[in-house]
Specification:
The structure holds two protein chains of two kinds.
Chain A lengths: L7 H10 L4 E7 L6 H15 L5 E7 L6 H7 L17 E7 L6 H14 L4 E4 L9 H12 L5 E7 L6 H15 L1 E2 L8 E4 H9 L12 H11 L4 E8 L11 H18 L1 H5 L5 E2 L2 E2 L14 H14 L1 H7 L2 H16 L8 H17 L4 H23 L4 H17 L1 H8 L24
Parallel strand pairs in A: 1-2, 1-4, 2-3, 5-8, 6-9, 8-10
Antiparallel strand pairs in A: 4-7, 5-7
Helix pairs in contact in A: 2-5, 4-7, 6-9, 6-16, 8-9, 9-14, 9-15, 11-13, 11-15, 12-15, 14-15, 14-16, 14-17
Chain B lengths: L1 H51 L4 H8 L1 H5 L7 H23 L4 H44 L5 H24 L3 H26 L1 H10 L18
Classes of the chains: A alpha/beta, B mainly alpha.
Chain lengths: 445, 235
């Protein structure tokens, strides 16, 4: 295995600190507005819940030019304002180091994991640096199952706005659940707790310089934990509120990295997912409570225009992945988007078939992977528009039921996935080509 | 008189006999070689059809995207393509071998020319195939990018990219073959120059109003309103 070298600052820090029981990692890039709050929450959490442990907070920075690293080092915890029932026995060290290699969250995580391993940490937690709703309790919830519950992987469980986390809700959660049979609700949440055992397994792998180095890291971590049989659980962290995003950020690249990582891992772990059917709940820790969330405005008209145009222009790419019947259904959706945009709807089964067809085409045509994944963007946008139109008047619980229904569709289509996965001659027809059945996804709520 | 006529006829018959004696054996040899080549070509085609039927060759070409270069995806039968190529290659080889049986200056030159040109022709074919593949790949990338970015007429942009790349491949191939070099080079320069001029004119005419507005209001208005950030996170 070729392992990335730690920067000199990090090596000196390891030599100086020598050992840490807990490592908290915070990847960052231009997060000066929020990272101070995240570091203070981490300091408070470690001091309050793990006073007996030696701990280190590591900021792995991607070359911020806005003073993010200074903000990390300047973040001070005012002990007087916190009610600590235990006196910290060991100081919490802080370190801010720029990582090397491919710019991205995955590269930042790699350095954090290397540091954690070199310091012989028993548990490691990683959290995003743009979080506004993070509290000291998050660290207790992410680390305690590892330190005291013998769990290897702690995934987050949040309350999010119904239109937030749409890649998670429409592709990653239902697909991961159908594949690996475990209901991890936020597989790409970005805030995780990891055991030393799992951390070593991550570092052993040699695919760090793929899409894993970027947005693919979250699903990569979750998939390895689930597919290789590590003990996984979830912790309820409350609301997930983060700093405003740049609207110009490349959605297509993000989708390519995340979905591409899932598809690649599907190929690697086919032995694991083929044998599993259905799904089971994963342990959920923490006290669940409802929270108020920021409203989000979504312009579905623009989304449907993008989809309509793609139906005309991307046909030659989509036919590489979609069987004739599915392609026909997509073209019909394009016409529907023009005729009656207010009632535009992509049935859950059809959406699940589309994702499965793209996964199989991704495996079949390695040289066309980038095209396939990038051409999925307008379809995904159409799915988001459909979801927004459908759930506009729904409450959070009702929306969750809709996502549950989609996840069940993915599970029901697993035999189709297995058949298509091995189908070299395109003989397997999609279930939607079979005689029509009433679609539960259009049920009244 | 009769004697003279007889002599002429005898000489004509002698020349015919010489010609027949000189060319009939090579002709027969040539026909035999051609027949043998034809039979071998038929046999090889049949064998290749049998061997490649059911192998992963079709799949490989489909996965590599080469079927799209050679024809419409799904319509190209790779087995037939390979066996057909072998069939014609053997026939051409047989024809050249047959020609060499005559051992004349003309046939020798023809055979030498073809043998000399063969590596160049193969390289040219490879250049054109690579150009076709690259053109298709990059035109698809452009199509998807333009579509995702919401640019007008993505298919036209994509077609333009494909045409330019294939044209570059043709120029390189012509250069390699020393075939009409100056014509292709001049056409290439004209095409690129024309494209740049057209783009400049289109941009200039299309953005004239915007530039005028910008220049007039440069001192009074802020340069650009930042887009409102979004709290929607897809992940």
């Amino acid at each position: 295995m070729r392992e990335g070298r730690l920067p000199a600052d990090a090596v000196h820090a390891v030599e100086r600190i020598q050992k840490a029981d807990i490592v908290v990692g915070i990847p960052s890039y231009n997060n000066v507005r929020t990272i101070g709050h995240v570091v203070r929450a981490a300091q408070a959490g470690l001091a309050k819940y793990f006073p007996q442990y030696h701990a280190l907070i590591v900021n792995s920075d991607g070359g911020s030019g806005d003073g993010t690293r200074d903000a990390v080092m300047a973040a001070q915890l005012d002990d007087a304002h916190l009610l600590m029932l235990a006196t910290p026995l060991a100081p919490v060290h802080r370190l801010s180091v720029p990582y090397h290699g491919i710019p991205g969250k995955g590269s930042a995580f790699r350095m954090i994991f290397q540091l954690a391993r070199d310091l012989e940490a028993k548990a490691c937690a990683v959290v995003d640096s743009d979080l506004r709703s993070i509290t000291p309790e998050w660290f207790d919830l992410l680390l305690r199952p590892v330190l005291y519950g013998n769990f290897d992987f702690v995934a987050p469980y949040y309350h999010r706005h119904k239109y937030d986390g749409t890649i998670t809700n429409s592709i990653i959660y239902p697909l991961t659940r159908a594949l690996y049979g475990q209901r991890v609700r936020q597989p790409i949440g970005g805030d995780f707790g990891v055991s030393a055992r799992l951390l070593s397994r991550y570092l052993e792998r040699n695919d760090w310089e793929t899409d894993v180095a970027r947005y693919g890291i979250d699903i990569w971590m979750t998939t390895i934990a689930l597919a290789e049989g590590f003990r996984a659980c979830q912790s309820f962290l409350g609301a997930k509120l983060h700093d405003a995003k740049d609207p110009g950020a490349d959605l297509s690249a993000m989708l390519q990295q995340v979905v591409g990582s899932v598809f690649l891992l599907m190929d690697e772990y086919q032995g694991a997912w083929r044998a599993r059917s259905g799904s089971e709940p994963v342990d959920l820790f923490g006290f669940r409570f409802d929270v108020g969330l920021d409203p989000i405005a979504v312009n579905t008209e623009r989304m449907l225009t993008t989809f309509r145009r793609a139906c005309e222009d991307l046909r030659e790419i989509w036919v590489m992945a979609l069987p004739k019947a599915t392609m026909g259904a997509v073209q019909e959706l394009g016409r529907q988007a023009e005729r009656e945009p207010a009632s535009f709807h992509i049935p859950d089964r059809l959406w699940a078939e589309i994702v499965i067809d793209f996964a199989c085409a991704h495996k079949e045509m390695p040289l066309e992977r980038t095209h396939l994944l990038r051409s999925l963007t307008p379809l995904y946008i159409a799915r988001v528009a459909s979801f927004v139109i459908e759930t506009r008047e729904m409450y959070a619980a009702q929306v969750e039921d809709r996502i549950e229904h989609l996840a069940q569709c993915f599970e029901e289509l697993k035999p189709y996935l297995i058949a298509r996965w091995n189908d070299k001659d395109g003989r397997v027809t999609p279930p939607s080509a079979a005689p029509e059945q009433p679609d539960k996804s259009t049920m009244e709520v | 008189m009769i004697e003279t006529l007889k002599q002429i006829v005898e000489k004509a018959l002698e020349r015919l006999s010489d010609t027949v004696t000189a060319y009939l054996p090579p002709l027969l040899a040539c026909l035999t070689i051609l027949l043998a080549a034809y039979l071998i070509a038929l046999l090889v085609r049949w064998l290749l059809n049998r061997i490649f039927k059911g192998t992963g060759l079709d799949r490989f070409l489909h996965q590599s995207g080469l079927t799209g270069v050679l024809g419409r995806p799904g319509r190209v039968r790779t087995t037939r393509l390979v066996s057909g190529t072998a069939y014609w290659a053997i026939l051409i080889l047989g024809f050249l071998t047959g020609l060499s049986a005559f051992n004349t200056a003309l046939t020798t030159r023809m055979v030498e020319t073809v043998v000399f040109m063969l590596p160049k022709l193969l390289t040219t074919a490879a250049i054109l195939l690579a150009g076709g593949w690259l053109g298709q790949y990059l035109s698809r990338s452009t199509l998807i990018w333009a579509c995702n970015e919401g640019l007008p007429a993505p298919r036209r942009i994509s077609a333009a990219v494909r045409i330019v790349i294939i044209f570059v491949a043709i120029v390189v191939a012509a250069e390699h073959l020393n075939f009409a070099r100056s014509v292709f080079l001049a056409a290439f320069v004209l095409l690129v120059g024309g494209a740049v001029l057209a783009a400049s004119l289109a941009l200039g005419l299309g953005a004239r109003g915007a530039v005028q507005k910008y220049l007039l209001s440069e001192d009074t208005q802020p340069s650009e309103q930042p887009r409102e950030p979004s709290i929607l996170d897809h992940l």
